[in-house]
Each structure stands twice: as C-alpha cells, then as structure tokens.
Design brief:
Layout (H helix, E strand, L loop, with lengths): L8 E7 L6 H9 L6 E8 L5 H11 L3 E6 L6 H10 L4 E4 L5 E2 L3 H9 L5 E9 L5 E4 L9 H6 L8 E4 L2 H4 L10 H11 L4 E12 L5 H4 L4 E8 L2 H13 L3 H20 L14 H10 L9 E5 L2 E8 L4 H14 L1 H26 L1
Parallel strand pairs: 1-2, 1-4, 2-3, 6-9
Antiparallel strand pairs: 4-8, 5-9, 6-7, 6-8, 10-12, 11-12
Helix pairs in contact: 9-13, 10-11, 10-13
Length: 358
C-alpha cells in the first residue's frame, strides 16, 4: 500500500459553529496554486452542523482532515491540537472566517524555502457582503522587535512559520488578551525574525461580531498616576478637552520620527521584500493623520493609587509592563508634557482639599 507523500505545509484552521460558511474558507485552500498541503480543521466542540460540512469537504478533497476536540472556548487549544498532528515542514494558519488568495501558499513558501523562519503577508479587509473596507499598505508590513512589543502586527491568517517554532516557545496560550500577539512576541524573544511581503494574499473578515472585537482589555498603560482620585479625573478631563492637543501631537511626532530613525538603522529592521519606500516618512505621515490621541482613556485604581490609563489587549502583566516602559522611552517629549500636566492636576486637587478643610 502506498502512503501519501508528506505535505510541504500544514494549514491549521480552528473552528466553532461556522456551519456551511466554512466551505468558503475550505475552498480558498483547495484553490491554492501549491498543491502539496494538508488542512487540519479543528472543531472546538461545535454543536451545530459544522463538522458535517467539513466532512463533506474532506470527501471532496482528502487533503482536508477534521479533528474534533472538547470545547475550549479559545482557539489556542485547537491550534495546539493541530500542531501536534501536523506533518508539513511548514505551518500556515487560517481562521475559519478568513480566506486566502489562490497564490497565498506559493508566496509564503517561496519565503520559507528561501530561508525565512516566520513570514507575514498583506491583507484586504472585507465586510460580510464582500465590500472592501481597508487594505494593508507596504509601510504597515515593516517589522522590528520593538514593533512586536508595542502592537498587534499580524493576524494568524497572514502568518506561516517553520514547524516546531511555536512548540519551542511554549505553543499557543490562552489568556486575557490577543493570543497571536503573545505568541509572535515569544517567538521574537527567542530570536525569530519576521520576513514580510506587501502582497495582499489574505482576506480578513471585517465584522463587529468576530471574536477579536470581543476580547477584553484587562491590562493598562498608565499615562499618569495620582494619590487623589480627583486629580486623576481632572487629568482625564484635561486630556479630553483638547486644550494642549497641538502640543501633544507635535511632541509625539517628533518622538516618533527620532524613534523610527533609530529602528530603521537597526539591522533587525525588516521592510517588505521589494519595497523601496521610506518607512519612517510613511509611518510618520500616517501618525499625523491619525484621529484623537486619547480615544479610550479611563481612570482606574492602580494599587493604592489612581491612574489615567489606556487599555491594552496583551495577555500578561509582564507584557503590559514592557509596553509601558518602551512607550515612555520612545516618547520622552510627550511624557514630559504629560508629567507636567499631571503635576498641575495634582496641585489643583491639593488646593481643593486644603480649601475643603478650612
């Protein structure tokens, strides 16, 4: 009896109660120009007919395999299950509501077989009706370890890597935040580097009902910390008032330009292959046109004190501390202004307290 050849790439797709809609995702894999793949669809205890539709797809194309697990309620468990079953030299991820362009695997395998260990591609963002909402720009495909600390840079459906890389850093983890941000950061800390392309080979679903929009932000980046809750509320009101918005924006842009110049000069800085643009200029331009600097600030308890803080969707307190430290180091002008405003608010609150005692 002849055995099927080992696939070059294992496609990992966690799913839960996707029903017939999973067929569109399967079809985007069966349409790939690269044919030596296996697709591991891991049903996370689905209670509808999702499994039947995946079995239907597997009967049509035996490269598709259904794996079923007990309910985790989180995609990390199913992804780890698939990693343990994967036979390919490389691993690519595809969420159950996303799709690939027909040459996606061809693009990522050309990079991986060329020596890359971790790759990401560009994307289109489309709503459930297929209307284009946004598309990645080449400068957004630039990468550096500090970018990885600060932000959620690449969704799973855009990423592929050599098999074994995820397991070496502990695999996919559950937690309070974005699990892909957590895994890519642990890979980065272990020495892995992203290779990227500007090609928009992934179509991501833009839908407020997707899990990514429901993940709570349980960690915080404190902008200012106070002993008195009234001082914290005063600081929040001051930032929302826009009184010093122009000064904050000017300081942030100057800090960003300096920071980017340092990163671009670093040998670890990655730009998308073939792109000859100026990443510092493009990122600075995007920052200048960004909306409000403080869209989601809140006042919270901070130990025995009170903080004006931004929510963070990272998974661990240690990561949140790294974000806070790096933001303060990379934005010295901005935080000098924030510290001055915080001192003003603290003095005002102190004066109000004294007046109350008299």
């Amino acid at each position: 009896m002849e055995h099927a050849p080992e696939p070059r790439v294992s496609v990992i797709c966690p799913t839960y109660n996707r029903s017939r809609a999973i067929l569109d995702t399967l079809a985007s894999v069966t349409a790939q120009t690269i044919t030596d793949w296996e697709m591991l669809v891991v049903s996370d205890g689905s209670t509808d007919d999702t499994d039947d539709w995946v079995r239907h797809g597997a009967r049509t194309d035996p490269r598709i395999r259904l794996l079923r697990t007990e309910r985790h309620g989180h995609p990390s468990g199913p992804r780890n299950t698939a990693l343990a079953e994967a036979r390919g030299e490389f691993v690519a991820y595809l969420d159950h509501d996303d799709q690939w362009r027909a040459d996606h695997l061809e693009v990522v395998l050309s990079l991986l077989e060329g020596g890359a260990e971790l790759v990401a591609t560009g994307f289109e963002l489309r709503d459930p009706r297929g209307t284009l909402r946004a598309a990645s720009q080449p400068y957004e495909m630039c990468w550096h370890p500090e970018f990885q600390v600060l932000g959620v840079v690449f969704e799973p459906s855009r990423v592929a890597h050599r098999r074994g890389l995820a397991e070496r850093v502990g695999g996919w983890r559950t937690g309070a935040g974005l699990e892909d941000w957590d895994l890519w950061l642990r890979m980065t800390d272990a020495g892995a580097r992203f290779t990227t392309v500007a090609d928009r080979t992934t179509v991501l679903l833009d839908d407020s009902g997707t899990r990514r929009h429901r993940i709570p932000a349980r960690h915080r980046l404190p902008l200012a910390v106070f002993d008195d809750p009234r001082a914290a509320r005063s600081m929040l009101e001051l930032l929302h008032s826009g009184r010093d918005a122009a000064a904050y924006r000017t300081a942030q842009l100057a800090d960003t330009e300096e920071w980017l110049a340092r990163l671009v000069a670093d040998e670890r800085f990655t730009r998308p292959l073939g792109w000859q643009g100026d990443p510092a200029a493009e990122i600075a331009r995007a920052r200048r046109s960004a909306p409000d600097l403080w869209p989601d600030l809140l006042v919270i308890r901070w130990g025995e004190r009170y903080a004006v803080a931004q929510p963070l969707r990272c998974s661990t307190a240690e990561h949140a501390e790294r974000v806070t430290s790096l933001v303060r180091r990379s934005q010295p002008r901005l935080f000098a202004l924030l510290d001055a405003a915080a001192a003003e608010c603290a003095r005002t609150a102190g004066n109000l307290t004294g007046a109350g005692r008299r």
